[in-house]
């Protein structure tokens, strides 16, 4: 840091020296600038408030190149009277009194020429920052500059807390998990793995759980990044679900997800909860007290086949048996049996439950009908909750349902839907939004491969 | 016009998946269609997991799955009652016992590891290829002849038509024939039945794909090499095969998009590993 200051000081000296030369050769310009006075103005730079020297010229605010470069951590070099500013592989060349700058070799015209005031060089903010690969936005009346290099192609956003998202990028050989600042998009690597399942973040945001390709469970501390093995149990665990108090993880067990079990994350002790020999359970939901469960069961089409003569193709499939149904299970009842909540043959996706007794799901009757949000009550009745527009996704948080629906071909809506079916549109978003994440910490969306977080009144892209 | 643009986006998505570079976090899809999948029970957990994830991205695609052994996959495709035949071998080629299915395309989806398994009380933990050949052909009938207790060996075989059987015969027994009858010989119809039979039958030996191995049975080393992903990747464990989705000609529409999803790096590096399958890219 001291080093950078020293460099900046010598750069300033060089600017002064250079400017004397150019001022001499461009006397008229220097004359008009003389009356302009520098003032202080505060912008947000990569999430931090920073004071800049600015001047106003013909109604446009110009900012000190030196202050800007220092704030964003850019390098400055002086070449033949021009300043060359570099950041994140981008280069901007600035010449005093020129009505353009050069960004990565291409000329960008400016409304006001680059000015010299009291020995410092001033330039229009937006084109200068854009030339260095950054962005300038107006957030709640405050100018906000970002030069953070956003992660590219990240997916699966999960909130750790209000200021941090966990996201992942997938490579040919494995996956990298990152912690991303929800205000700036600044990211740091949390973990790189080739054989680990997706990280499931605890509600308290302190740790995440995952399994490896042997089925063993691990915890990662999201502050220290330390990984500790939790269990040597090598059964396949297709789904992991945290308890609200972050003390227990519930999971489906076996390659067919036949068993519901739990593990105490302090002791590592595993307890089976339901072993009813029913295969292909999925979408496990657990009540806050950890006693009530809602899950889906997929039953398969029935095949009759006789392979004694392969060429005869003596094979038939009865698909009426191929269904997805939702069940609830009360683990407090001794020798209790699961209760079937649904009977319809519709496809059921995005199955959620807050209390482990009542379920909500997105029903897809067939490929040409709108998908509808449906509530399945503990007594086996179902009720349509939202179907005004085609439902693309539904998530549940703190007992409330949130729906992403296709308002039109160009717009999707994010709705909060009550248990009685009243829908309130929270946000209208682009039709490119394909997924939503809602938590106590905030709301995030995936839009055309980029992850955006709601900050105040605007959506901030935190990955691209 | 807008509808047209939207469906074009879906096509673009499908096309870009071919490169394997597309992330799962792509724009909402309007892809429609129905996909019927039948065949291998070994591949079924993988198929259902992929179907569940694919449906969240493509709600208007209906996927129906069933399993009754590998051979019924390409048979159902040939008969026209399934779009995808899940099979544990490349059914577009001849293999021991089965002729190739003309006109079908083999789309690789995963690497499956097969393991010789015994009831958990059997004292033997490793067998040579020769010992396996002699046991499964009925020449060795007592565990004491291969270092175990003085107990009759119960051989559990999969029925003809099983992909696991084809792979085990080709790769663990080097193509030698199975016994086919006897008091201590059983045949079962699926991986699930094999699992239950080995777990509950003392002195039994059989074979199964690795994801089905449980703590209630013992997976045997073959020629001293344990059936693990690590040993497949380092080339020492040979009893593995590639699972395929057979289609009538090149896949199109929703079927194509589903196969591309299961082949995508997101699925291959994600749920596929969690279910103890090995990504295709690992063994190239």
TrEMBL record, chain A:
One Pfam family named in its UniProt record: Cu_amine_oxidN1
SUPFAM superfamilies per the UniProt record, alphabetical: Copper amine oxidase, domain N (SSF55383), DPP6 N-terminal domain-like (SSF82171)
UniProt superkingdom: Bacteria
Span of the signal peptide: 1-23
Record keywords: Signal
Domain spans labelled Copper amine oxidase-like N-terminal: 44-145
Xref: PANTHER family: PROTEIN TOLB (PTHR36842:SF1), PROTEIN TOLB HOMOLOG (PTHR36842)
Name of the protein in its database record: Copper amine oxidase-like N-terminal domain-containing protein
Organism of origin: Cohnella thailandensis
TrEMBL record, chain B:
Membrane disposition: Lipid-anchor
Protein function: Part of the ABC transporter complex PstSACB involved in phosphate import.
Region forming the signal peptide: 1-27
Gene3D superfamilies xrefs: Periplasmic binding protein-like II
Top-level taxonomy: Bacteria, Bacillati, Bacillota, Bacilli, Bacillales
Gene Ontology terms describing biological process: phosphate ion transport
Name under which the protein is recorded: Phosphate ABC transporter substrate-binding protein
Keywords: Lipoprotein, Palmitate, Phosphate transport, Signal, Transport
Native source species: Cohnella thailandensis
Alphabetized InterPro entries for the sequence: PBP_domain, Phosphate_ABC_transporter
A cellular component term, taken from the record's GO annotations: plasma membrane
